[in-house]
Each structure stands twice: as structure tokens, then as C-alpha cells.
Amino acid sequence: MYKHINSLTSLRGIAALVVVIHHFSYYTLPKTGATLSTYSSFFHNGYLWVDFFFILSGFIMTHVYARDFSAKLTSDNYRSYLLSRFARIYPLHIFILALFVGLEILKTFLIHHSAFTGKFNLTALFANVFLLQAFDLNCPPLFWCNTYWNEPAWSISVEFVIYCVFPFLLFFLLRNNYKHDLLMYVSSLLGILLLVTLTRGNLDSIIGVPAIARCGLECVLGIITYKVYRRGHYQKYFNLNLLAIIAITWIMLIMHNYWHYWRSLHDWLILPGFSLLILAVSVNNKGMISKFLNSQPMLYLGTRSYSVYLVHWFIQDVIKFSWVYRFNGIFGQSFTRLENFLALGVFLMITLLVASLTYKFVEVPMRHYLKSKLLLTNINE
């Protein structure tokens, strides 16, 4: 049985919150984003925390499944693993998708909106139901696909693809010695830089089919980071609190600045910082950073991070629709600076409240239900 690493749960919550603020401030209420950017580009660069998710996912899944797939890879343990992953991500995804369908129907009655058109077309709905929303081959050149009913759910699609190949990656990479690990880590980093440079020049634009490579390569970074964590030799030479401070400073400096030129290099440089942060906080100690990450409020946020991540875009759409229906105008168009920040605060509180409800009444019970049904069926077979 693996040991749960609480600090990483809290980091996942922080990452989800940064992504939520990024989406609200730069997509739903751009005036807020413009104000934030006058002080710092931290939230403008918030999309980079999706890449943190991918690296962290590789690390945590290795922590959970290393014992299962290090010695052998059988059809039974592969099937059990994949069913468990499906039960983890699918129920909440399909629930939020159903809410979007309901909202689309509501629009037709209240504002005479043409239902199931534009990005909310039936083909895209079909793709989302079957976790295929990252595979719209009609998007030249495979970017900016209009297949995402729930915008953040593009990552769910590509992650599930990587879930399918992860045991094979793990089986191969766990056999590498430390010299090969370094080579694999550097090769994956260079592969990401090449991917960014040859596509749209930043990680934010790598969605659709190329995002599979983005997710896969960053998952490899997470696997190698975990192998360093398991060896533990770095603890002899580095103070963990100092290592965490270096990682946080590294990440903050990159997040604070927005390079219009050398954009691909800017986004790429943060990735080793994410690995270093994960490595630094994975070992519990009595330092201030560990105490903060292991506090109850941070763990509460972390356990609900998946719900926060998936539900917030729907809440944004409800707000924009309600504003059009009630005031017949664009949400936030006439807001003052103070009203912009008040709107952000209210939005965050609503998101956390709704995410807490979906976590308690949808995500957890449906995950347990599916696992009990699917895994029991698998055993009986």
C-alpha cells in the first residue's frame, strides 16, 4: 500500500486555483486581467499550471503504481488500473457535460439562442462523451479545436490517452539506471522545447492532438522526478526547505514576467522548476512550507481540486448567460476596477462552494460506485 503525500495534494489545489483565476480574469472578465497584468503577469501565465498537473500526474501515478508495473505487466493488472483511472476522471466530466447540455437547452427558451451550434455542436458533444475531444482532425493544423464544451476538459481527453500507455512507460523507465534517467529527462525537456517551437510558440496553444505529446513528455518528467525522490540521495546534499525556496523563487520569477519574444523558451524554462518543487515538498519535514501545505485549509482545497478545475468553466458560462438574460449586455463591460475584483472574489467563493458540493455528491460517490462495479466485474471475469 502506498503512502499518501499530503503536500502534493495541496499543491494540486493551488495549481487549480491559479488556473481558475487565469480563466476568469483573461477570458470572462478581461478588465480584471488587464489590471492584474499591470502589477504582475503571474496570473496571465496561469495556464502553465496545467503543465504542472501533467508532471505531478506522472509523479503521483508512479508513486501509486510502481509496485504493480515494475516487475510485470499483465492484462489483469492493466485492466484494473485503467478501470480505476476511468472511474477517477469520467463521472464528474460527464456530469458537468450534462449541465452544459441543460444550459444550452435553457438558452433556447430564454434568449432564443440556436441550440447545439458553434462549439456546442452535436459532433463535439459526441466527442466529449467518449473522451475524444482532443482528436478533431479538422482543425488546421490541429490547433484551437472547437470540440471542448467544457474548455478545461481538453486535458482530460489527452490524459486518458496517456493513462492508456502509462504502464508501458513505467515498465520501461523503472528499469533505467540513474545515468539513463538523466538522459531521458533532458531528452523529454528538449522534445517539449521542439514541440513548442514548431507549433504555436507557447504551451498555452498546444491543445488538440499535439497536446498528447505535451502531456506524455511531461508525464515522463514526472516519472523521472519520482525515481530521484525514491533514491533520496539529494537529501544528503540539500536542505529541503532551501530547495523548496529555490524552486518557488524560480517559478515566481518566470510567472511574474511575460516574454512576448522568446515565448517558447519562457514557458519551457518553468518545467524543471516544477519538478524541483515537487521533489522539495514531497518529503515531510518541520519547515514552514511543509506546515503550510499540510494545513487543513490547503488539504481541503487540494482534495477538491479536480472539482474546482472542471466546474469553474460552467460557472463562468452561467454568469455570462445570466448577465445577458438579465441586463441584455456583456458581463463586466461597465465594471469599475473595484467591481472587477469584487466579481473575482465572488466567483472564487461560488466556485469553491459548488466544487465542494460536486466533490461530495458526485465525484466521490460515483468514483466509488464505478470502482465497485467495474473492478468487481473485472475480478469475476
Automatic annotation (TrEMBL):
Kindly list the residue ranges recorded as spanning the membrane. Answer: 9-27, 47-66, 87-106, 153-175, 182-199, 205-226, 238-259, 265-285, 306-325, 341-362
Q: Which GO terms describe its cellular component?
A: membrane
In its UniProt entry, what is this protein called? Acyltransferase 3
Q: Where is the Acyltransferase domain?
A: 6-359
Keyword Chaperone belongs to the record: no
**Coiled-coil segments:** none
One biological process term in Gene Ontology: polysaccharide biosynthetic process
Annotated signal sequence range = none
Keywords noted in UniProt: Acyltransferase, Membrane, Transferase, Transmembrane, Transmembrane helix
Enumerate the GO terms in the molecular function aspect.
acyltransferase activity, transferring groups other than amino-acyl groups
User: Which species is listed as the source?
Assistant: Tolypothrix tenuis PCC 7101
What the entry lists under PANTHER family is as follows: ACETYLTRANSFERASE (PTHR23028), ACYL_TRANSF_3 DOMAIN-CONTAINING PROTEIN (PTHR23028:SF53)
